[in-house]
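Lecture notes, unit on protein representations.

Consider one protein chain, 176 amino acids long.
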Amino acid sequence: MIYWIIPVVLLVIIGIVAIIVYRNYQSKKRKNDIFKIFWRACQEKEIENYKLEYVKKDTYDFYFESEKNIYYIKVIYNFSNQEICINNAIKWQLRGFKDNNEGMQFVEGIESLMRLDLNNKVKKEHKLFIIYPNTRALLKVINECEMVFVYPDTDVYGATVVPYLKLVDDVSILEI
């Protein structure tokens, strides 16, 4: 009886270790993807003096600073490619393929960056939300019966919201 318990325990331990290693790999890959986007944008615009760091604060995940601009960057993970509907500055709704009113899902962690006061007098400050990796649709509610699509140049309550894959296609969206 004990002979079959040991292999089962070993398989469970190996499975748990494999999951942890895979999640760490994916996390590093996502961070590197964001770093590559900003590195590429700096290369294309020939900017040499810049600072980009992963800070993982409650307010924002990345901080970018160049001679003229500062970006506070929050990454919104959307692996199931759901539609994101921006109801107001702090309530963003995730809507899937089978959307109904039961169990509405909202994007977590956006409020602190949306409420962040930007007051740098020397450099232009930006709030940037990157939807990683993509979104089926990105909408902003105008009033009770009107919505508009959100594009990279759309002002979303003082912030910019861009899908990661859109940045991959065109890094000139960033005003670096």
